Amino acid sequence: MKKMYSTKMINTGGRSGEVHSPDHSFELSIAAPGKRVENATNPEQLFAAGFSACFNSALELVKQRKGIDGASTVSAQVSLYAENESSFVLGVEIEGFVEGLSLDETQELLEIAHTVCPYSKATAGNIEVTVKAVSE
């Protein structure tokens, strides 16, 4: 396997701290989910951002291979669940739209993209991920 890209982020303070790249070109304040802290995000938002972008890129590849050029939009809703007081898991709901396609046609493309997306592969068998076509 050939490595195409690698990146690194450093966290201090966990869910009440900050993350930054080694060169400090990317820095974010981190707050626990549900806390409103100005200019801060949380790990679930970061995961949702990465998953939606990665999944939409996989969908773009699938569309390209099938000669489909309608614009697509993908959202990822990441939920944090408490299994008990010391065990937590994530769940993800992916929703996708492809301009000019029916819900069934879009669902078919989403299912294929789900087998292509690196985030989907990384989470397979580890957390519940649902994939659903939606109208815009």
Describe, in plain words, how this protein is organized in 3D.
It comes from Enterococcus saccharolyticus 30_1. Belongs to the OsmC/Ohr family. It holds the Pfam family OsmC. This is Organic hydroperoxide resistance protein OhrA. With 136 residues, the protein is an alpha/beta fold. It has 2 domains: 8-39, no CATH class; 41-131, 2-Layer Sandwich (GMP Synthetase, Chain A, domain 3), CATH 3.30.300.20. The protein has 3 helices and 7 strands. The strands form 2 sheets. Strands 1-2-3-4 form a 4-stranded mixed β-sheet.
Task: Give the topology.
Blueprint: E1 10-12, E2 18-20, E3 27-30, E4 40-41, H1 43-66, E5 72-84, E6 87-98, H2 103-116, H3 118-123, E7 128-133
Parallel strand pairs: 3-4, 6-7
Antiparallel strand pairs: 1-2, 2-3, 5-6
Q: What would you say about this model in short?
A:
This is Organic hydroperoxide resistance protein OhrA. The protein has 136 residues and is α/β, with parallel strands linked by helices.
